[in-house]
Amino acid sequence: MIEVVAGLILDGTGRLLACKRPEGKHLGGKWEFPGGKVEPGESPSDALVRELEEELGIRVETATALTPVVWDYGRGPIRLHPFLCRILSGQPHPHEHSEIRWCGPDELGELDWAEADVPILEEWRAMDTR
Ligand SMILES: Nc1nc2c([nH]c(=O)n2[C@@H]2O[C@H](COP(=O)(O)OP(=O)(O)OP(=O)(O)O)[C@@H](O)[C@H]2O)c(=O)[nH]1
C-alpha cells in the first residue's frame, strides 16, 4: 500500500485550491489536491507540510483529517489521506502542476478530478468549513 497525503487548502471564503496534474504524467490533465507520497519515517501531516512547500512554496498547518480513501488505478493500491489546511505564509505558485485554481463549490464540480478525490470532495461538501 502506498501512503499519499493531499491538502484541502482553504482561503477563508469557502474556496479550495485545485491543482492540475501535468500532461504526460500518470493521470495527466486530471485535477487533484496538492500533496504526494509519504516518505519512510514521516507522519502524514509532516509529509503534507513538506510536499506543499515543494509544490507550491507555501507553509501550511494541517487541521482536520478527513476519511482516508483507498484506490487502485491498476498500479497497486494507494491510501490517500486528506487534511484540511490553512496557509501560514506564502502565496501558492505551481512548481509541479500545469495550473492551480481557487474554486468555490460550483466550480469544483466542473473540474475533471482524479477518481480517488471524488469521495473526498463529497465529504468536504457535507462539512461547513467556512
Ligand atoms: N498528490 C496527490 N496525489 C493523488 C491525489 N489523488 C490521487 O489519486 N493521487 C495519486 O496518488 C499518487 C501519488 O501522488 P504523487 O503526486 O506523489 O505521485 P507522482 O505523480 O510523483 O508519482 P508517480 O511517479 O507514481 O506518477 C499518484 O498516483 C496520484 O495520481 C491527490 O489528490 N493528490
| CATH class placement | Alpha Beta
Helices and strands, in order, run as EEEEHEEEEHH
Task: Work out the helix count.
Answer: 3
User: What value does the Rg take, in angstroms?
Assistant: 13 Å
Largest sheet: 5 strands, mixed
Structural class given helices, strands, pairing?
alpha+beta
Intertermini distance: 33 Å
Shape: globular
CATH architecture: Alpha-Beta Complex
Helix content: 10-25%
Mean pLDDT: 95
**Amount of beta strand:** 35-45%
Low-confidence stretches: none
Return the domain count: 1
Please name the fourth-level CATH homologous superfamily. Answer: Nucleoside Triphosphate Pyrophosphohydrolase
Number of strands: 8
Compounds present?
Answer: 8-OXO-guanosine-5'-triphosphate
CATH topology: Nucleoside Triphosphate Pyrophosphohydrolase
Protein name: 8-oxo-dGTP diphosphatase
Keywords: DNA damage, DNA repair, DNA replication, Hydrolase, Magnesium, Metal-binding, Mutator protein
Cofactor: Mg(2+)
EC number: 3.6.1.55
